[in-house]
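From the methods appendix. Each design record in this collection lists the tokenized structure first, followed by the designed amino acid sequence. Records were kept in a plain field format so they could be parsed without special tools. The example shown here is representative of the layout used throughout.

RECORD:
FOLD TOKENS (337 positions):
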């Protein structure tokens, strides 16, 4: 087993860290411990939970909600809820759409967007928008952003969205450009009058066409810039690192193997593997513990074979719950020193 704490120590100098793995392997503890250690070194750190289970507040022993909560000097926490983000996102889109259409369309805008609220992927898309916004704030009010992510499958879908949504936004902008050119053509040859029942758009005095088109383009371009910036940060190996957390057992090993393959295909930089909750050598003996050690030894060998190029850090099973700043600080030191 390759132990390489200096790699995680250097990782704290980056801008964004994702901590992910199978549910229940200890991702939140690792993310919180790294955040505490980075804050101790003087970096301004925001640790964000995107896991619907939201155990970040539990490990710190504090209530943490959707707004930044100060946890200690240089350290803030936030828990993002996908359902709440989707609700806020839909409300914002409704407001924007109503500024672009005739009042007769308001009921239809409400109906369509209420349906979209429950469409597959809406929560993940809204969650990505919030994450992209936070990534854009690194270097301004914070130095390091640490994401305690949802279980691996959810995270991989989330990380693939910037490319998908950027392509979708690009398509909308191209469509807008073609529509604008076509509209200019219609004006020159005498197209349908604006403000009638067919278009459901206001008269020129109520809704100036140029102003409306400009506003639509502004919204799409702002979204495009935000998503492209998030993608640039995700793919920047000097700025971003993904830490895989697993336990020495079959299920978390299999999921971590699949996660590594998917992350590598997406060119997401994986920085290290943390093997958590390994039975300590001084835990005593007996038939049960000896059997557990033999099983763990076999899985540790498989972990070495599965991640030969990645630094691997082993954390022992703790005698009690990891809870509070002091305990998290001790874990953070073991991870990085």
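DESIGN:
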């Amino acid at each position: 087993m390759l132990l390489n704490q200096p790699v995680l120590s250097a990782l704290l100098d980056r801008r964004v860290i994702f901590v992910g793995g199978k549910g229940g392997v200890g991702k939140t503890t690792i993310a919180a411990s790294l955040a505490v250690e980075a804050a101790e070194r003087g970096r301004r750190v925001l640790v964000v939970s995107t896991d619907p289970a939201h155990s970040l507040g539990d490990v710190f022993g504090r209530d943490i909600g959707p707004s930044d909560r100060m946890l200690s000097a240089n350290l803030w926490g936030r828990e993002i809820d996908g359902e709440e983000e989707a609700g806020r996102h839909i409300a914002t889109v409704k407001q924007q759409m109503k500024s672009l259409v005739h009042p007769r369309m308001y009921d239809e805008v409400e109906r369509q967007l209420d349906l979209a609220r429950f469409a597959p992927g809406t929560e993940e898309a809204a969650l990505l928008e919030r994450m992209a916004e936070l990534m854009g704030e690194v270097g301004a009010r914070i130095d390091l952003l640490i994401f305690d992510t949802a279980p691996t499958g959810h995270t991989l879908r989330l990380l693939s969205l910037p490319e998908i949504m950027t392509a979708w936004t690009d398509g909308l902008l191209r469509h807008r450009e073609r529509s604008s050119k076509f509209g200019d053509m219609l004006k020159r040859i005498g197209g349908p009058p604006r403000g009638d029942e067919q278009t459901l758009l206001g008269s020129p005095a109520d809704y100036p066409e140029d102003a409306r088109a400009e506003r639509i383009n502004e919204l799409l371009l702002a979204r495009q810039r935000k998503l492209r910036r998030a993608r640039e940060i995700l793919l920047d190996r000097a700025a971003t690192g993904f830490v895989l957390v697993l336990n020495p057992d079959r299920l978390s090993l299999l999921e971590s193997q699949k996660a590594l393959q998917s992350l590598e295909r997406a060119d997401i930089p994986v920085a290290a593997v943390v093997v958590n909750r390994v039975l300590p050598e001084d835990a005593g003996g007996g038939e049960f513990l000896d059997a557990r050690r033999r099983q763990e030894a076999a899985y540790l060998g498989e972990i070495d074979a599965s991640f030969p190029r990645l630094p691997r850090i082993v954390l022992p099973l703790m005698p009690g719950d990891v809870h509070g700043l002091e305990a998290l600080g001790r874990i953070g030191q073991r991870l990085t020193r």
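APPENDIX NOTE: The first strand starts at residue 16 and ends at 21.
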